[in-house]
Amino acid sequence: MIRYRRLLSVGLVTMCMAAALTQVRTASAIPAWSRMYGTSCDACHIAGFKLNRAGQNFLRSGHSMRTGEEKAELGNHLSVAQKLRYNYSKGKNDDGSGKKVTNSFEQHALSLYMGGALQKQWSYFAELYWHENSGNTAGASDLNDFGRSKLADAYIQYFVRQDEERYTSFRFGQFAPYLLHLHGVGARLSGDRAYVINSGSVGSNPYKPFTRQYGFEASHYYKGLNVAAAIMNGTGGKLFNRVDNDLKKDGYATVDYSFDDRGSMLGVYGYLGHYPLSVDDPVKFASGSYDNFNQIGVLGNYTRKEGALVGAFFAGKNKYVLRKDFAAPVDTTDLTVEPKSMGYYAELQIYGIHPRIQPFVRWDFWDPDTDVNDNEVLGPEVGVSCHAMDNGRIVTHFQQLKTKNSIKAHEFTENKVVVEVNFMF
Q1: What share of the chain is helix, strand, coil (3-state, %, to 5)?
Q2: What is the average per-residue pLDDT within 95-117?
Q3: Which of 1, 28, 352, 405 is a good FRET partner for 151, with 20 to 30 A between their CA atoms?
Q4: In sequence order, which ranges of 182-300 are alpha helices (DSSP H)?
Q5: What sign does the CA torsion over 133, 137, 140, 141 have?
Q6: Residue 84 and residue 8: Cα distance in Å, rounded?
């Protein structure tokens, strides 16, 4: 069986490379906007996916161009995307126990992208998943196959341009910070987001940088420098947002600077949150109990025509109270817990081999409590993205993640192989 999986991966990559070597036109990003403005995707993207400085400005200015003619035709505002995957993973503890195996072909996602200018100074954007693989093999499901429908970004934007190097933006709806979008939340070379962005949560608080939320953001751009601040509903429950039963709001701020035309950038992200633990678990946490937490991140990329270095570092602190019955070993009184977390990722992307072939290698690290030894999650990922279609690609990667444990025999190691075919039109 292992032999067949290897043959599948090698066969798909070989097919992709053959297609790439016979066609050299760079792949598109979101084709609707290329159709609207009659321009090549190369104007905003490097290697078919990464936003350069012009693309960053296009994103932040409501997916609109000052010099372009706005068109009300539906095809210039809509794109459809699909992802198909083969996913194999095998994990076990160092002593051979706790075995876990996945061997699955997946309709991973089918989604609709909508966006662009509504009229002068007003624009919108929305990403709707008609179907997304939930990662579950049992339980409730929207579509009776353990998939789900999901609304990702959905916001309206008011935009004021003072001149070519200065503009102010206001967003209202559901979104993630632009700085995070540009460093792994949005378009990326690998099929999966970095662990610290997508999976690094602390205790019973489901917050992670990837999570999109409802709120209001104001930002201002001046000659490469962008400053933004927002007030949000907060992460909330096990869904994207808690709307009705939590009156406390969260907030974030970002500052970043793009220092060349290829989109090389350095930025800082800060988040201040209040998560209502007692709503999810009133037995373990006292009524009205919150996890008051914060996180700061430094994100950046250095991009050249031959490739890019991309990475992020996050550090956070949580504070909450456990009921005395759960505060062992000191279980005679309520216990205040203040874990500190830390994580990062670093990724090398190579563009110089061929316009349609981009290998990459990444290292992930996450420590949910820096005061506790042997609880980190870490490991490498290596893969290659091949643009076998003008509007799509085949990406395959191998990842190994080790979850440490104070008991050496219980350290869990998972090896994962993913082959994804995706396209957008």
Answers
A1: 15, 50, 35
A2: 90
A3: 28
A4: 195-198, 277-280
A5: positive
A6: 14
State the total domains in the chain.
1
**Strands 166-175 and 213-222, how do they pair?**
antiparallel
- CB-based contact 364:379 (threshold 8 Å): yes
**Domain containing residue 263: CATH number:** 2.40.160.10
| Residue 56 φ/ψ, nearest 5 degrees | -60, -40
Token pair recorded at residue 197: 């962005």
Contacts by 324-331 with C-beta closer than 8 Å and gap 24+?
A: 326/284
Three-point CA angle 124, 128, 131, nearest 5°: 175
Tokens of 270: 């800060």
* Comparison of pLDDT for 297 and 162, the residue scoring more: 297
**CA pseudo-torsion sign 270, 274, 279, 285:** positive
Secondary structure (3-state) at 89: strand
Q: Can you give the residue range of the structural domain that contains 348?
A: 2-424
Report field, pTM of the whole predicted structure over 0.85: yes
Query: How far apart (Å, rounded) are the C-alpha atoms in residues 357 and 27?
Result: 11
> Cβ(414)–Cβ(100) under 8 Å?
yes
CA distance 390 to 101: 35
Going by the DSSP 8-state scheme, the letter that residue 293 receives in this structure is E
For residue 120, give every residue at least 6 positions away whose Cβ sits within 8 Å of its Cβ, in sequence order, or none.
none
What whole-number distance in Å separates Cα of residue 14 and Cα of residue 91?
28
pLDDT in tens, 278-319: 888 888 888 788 999 999 999 999 999 999 999 999 999 999
